Amino acid sequence: MPEAPKTTQKPTDYNLELKNKKILQFIEDLTSNADEVQNNVLEEILSSNAHVEYLKKHGLDGRTDRESFKNTMPVITYEDIQPYVERIANGDTSAILCSKPISEFLTSSGTSGGERKLMPTIEEELGRRSLLYSLLMPVMSQFVPGLDKGKGMYFLFIKSEAKTPGGLVARPVLTSYYKSNHFKDRPYDPYTNYTSPNETILCPDSYQSMYSQMLCGLCQHKEVLRVGAVFASGFIRAIKFLEKHWRLLCNDIRTGTIDSKITDPSVREAVMNILKADPKLADFVEAECSKDSWQGIITRLWPNTKYVDVIVTGTMSQYIPTLDYYSNGLPLVCTMYASSECYFGVNLNPLCKPSEVSYTLVPTMAYFEFLPIQRNNGVSNSISVPKTLNEKEQQELVDLVDVKLGQEYELVVTTYSGLFRYRVGDVLRVAGFKNKAPQFNFICRKNVVLSIDSDKTDEVELQHAVKNAVNHLLPFDATLAEYTSFADTTTIPGHYVLYWELSLNGNTPIHPSVFEDCCLTIEESLNSVYRQGRVCDKSIGPLEIKIVEPGTFDKLMDYAISLGASINQYKTPRCVKFAPIVELLNSRVISCYFSPKCPKWFPGHKQWSNTN
Ligand code: AMP
């Protein structure tokens, strides 16, 4: 995720070297004094919120020390604060969770009851997010010199927003950030010279936004020194877009005019400031794009690119081979770790291998605690974290500077905007330390079995969706004997695949349309983030059901046991990732069916539909 680009007016007194030095020193100071900083952060949060309803209810009584805080306040999940959140969403402006006015809701890609979680936020948090962004390029400049001499081609997008019944805006954190003055009216910074004009990023129509950003990126191809998007999936989607639309784009470059499908006047105007008729460039792009192989297309079209800036940690690691292919193995750089709840940390060694990426949590962002995690050993390698914590477990949380090398923890945050001891749901492993501050590998998001883009589907949601779908089989006297799933990212966009083994008792043949209905029912039953990805962003392809031969799941069990699984404890995995298992399943497929259309999706929560 790049930091906020800045305006183009270059002040005469701008001293890049000095600015970088100051920021690197700031990181040294923060990490050397991590515990003191954390103490101050907690004190500040608790004293400014001493009178909020939530803290009063739990009896904190204005105390601001760590011990009282830890002894008094429970460790919670979203469901614990949902009633408070709903009151705020419905227009209650009293100091419920935070003493400062709630400026908007950030809609997380984590869901509850099928809808995006709503994170209340306050105006000043934008400053904290900007601060984290401002650390990224000074860190990067230590490893790649000269990045101030050219541009970054980043594909950045806004998503749709809704209003809560009480009138607060609800939108994803990046939409909020890109629309803020922190992004739009940023001061000059040579590192944030981007190929995409603001207007192209802020265009709500995703086709026009992508088209115009790609066109501007191509026009300025020689100046581009780094390319990226927030997540790997988004960047790959941009390449795929180019694959589909390069002829139109070349035509625009040749003639110096913009395709008529780009109708947004502000986008057209912004692009026209960059686009000049350039038949030579059009020939060059055309020659590269019409070659059979797209291997290395990034380095071919943008020859001065030094790295690809995208998150490839967590579930995004599934895209590394595709990115390597398109970029001819350019470094893949993960710069930061953030969420709607809070921005967390930065990667201080950005040129390391994706498998070694670790994030240093920035101690000023929030007060961080860590819940130790025990692995259930065995084949499942599953992670066991209780949903609600008893008193003893609550006591086990440790502070930022007390985590142990190699140990895994669930991240718990106390933020300036009203989350107190809130379990984010991410599992992190301590990889090392920068001074006193720990550096964490991102291990996984708890319980998530399937993810293609920012969607996160857990086993319970999948089970519920499958249960709804199998109702279509009832008239045929067919039942689902076993199933599993796979996030297939060999297609662009990726899609969910379900492997179904059926028990057929009746003789009536099952028409393909019945299975297609099953696909659609599953999609309709999945959460709002999944459906938005299908409908709006087109970042997820149609769901596929693959019917496998009878006995396939027995074979799967045999295979797992041959790898060391215990016969007594064996359970069918509800999601598979291991390539030989996917191959085994694919080798026994009888027929495949795809969802025939997109599921329904509306902005905002379903219960707000009559207020928007
Ligand atoms: P959201 O609240 O929708 O912004 O999603 C935030 C979540 O995205 C985090 O809690 C993580 O699970 C995931 N995430 C964010 N940054 C990274 C990263 N650098 N690596 C892996 N996962 C990430």
From TrEMBL:
All residue ranges annotated as the GH3 middle domain in the record: 359-445
GO MF terms, alphabetically ordered: indole-3-acetic acid amido synthetase activity
Domain GH3 C-terminal: 461-578
One GO cellular component term noted in the UniProt record for this chain: cytoplasm
Keywords of this entry: Ligase
Similarity-based family: Belongs to the IAA-amido conjugating enzyme family.
Matching PANTHER family: GH3 DOMAIN-CONTAINING PROTEIN
Protein name per UniProt: Gretchen Hagen3.6, DWARF IN LIGHT 1
UniProt source species: Hibiscus trionum
